[in-house]
Fold:
Amino acid sequence: MTGAVMEESERKALDEKMQRLRLEIGRRVIGSERIVRFMLISILTENHILLEGVPGLAKTRLANEFARHLGLDFKRIQFTPDMLPTDVMGNYVLNLQTRKMEFREGPVFTNVLLADEINRTPPKVQSALLESMEEKQVSSNGQMHPLPEPFFVIATQNPIEQEGTFPLAEALLDRFLFRYRMTYPTREDELKAVRISLDAGERPEFFTDEEIRSLRQTVKDVHVSDEVSEYVVDLIRHTREAKGVFLGASPRTSVKYIRAIRANALLCGRDYALPDDVKFIAHEMLNHRLILQPEMHLESDNEPHAVMSAVINGIIKDVKVPR
Structure:
């Protein structure tokens, strides 16, 4: 598989792999088929994803299964208020045998990192993680240490419990391509989760790290027409002037948006993007990049997520869709 546009046979083979991947993870984490697509888009565009939901929704298991089925190394950090940046990134220690200072890697040195309850750690730790997410490296004592490739962060946070937490800064939130809100499963899915009984045997690996790197190059070759590019830009610009929005999405969002719709098109078996790709990811792309005016929440009886969803729906409705 090369970085060039894929042949029809290659696209069919990729689509089959993706279907099997979602099915296999879905057997172990009930109701995860849709979120797996957003996780794939994130890793294929060299970005990261934030999962938001109450405890008990299998966020940790989902991250673990995703890494295992992609054949990638996986590590988890349970963030706490007393953590230091060196607990995550690593630090120089004295080797008693050689009498020299050596860098000891922290848990961030992995392919897939689960940053569990990221809003429970102080801003210093969040900022250190920000460098790793954006620069794909760790700096310590003036030395740069590259992270493994690919490097993908799956962060989680509980939106209900706010005591003792440190809200994520806007700069850090913007480093996540998507914020995916996980909700309670349907009755049918919950029954499946109760009845399911899978052993902890070997998971099939559908990709290698080399294939992931190759697919990242392939994503860049997916065609985005001028009309679709203009549609994305118009959508982002409208977020800055829409009713009820205090602060809209930045120009950086437009760039990330284009990369995301390319990946979604590839996962759909196409080498070109459509307006439907733009609509499909709109909510997860924008829900953490818009700041609403306070009166939008005061004047509504709905929960904050529902208010934000309604605003995004209105933005999508107002922008003309290209033919």
Remarks:
- The CA atoms of residues 227 and 322 lie 6 Å apart.
- The chain has two domains: 1-220, 222-323.
- The domain at 1-220 is CATH 3.40.50.300 (Rossmann fold).
- The chain has a mean pLDDT of 89.
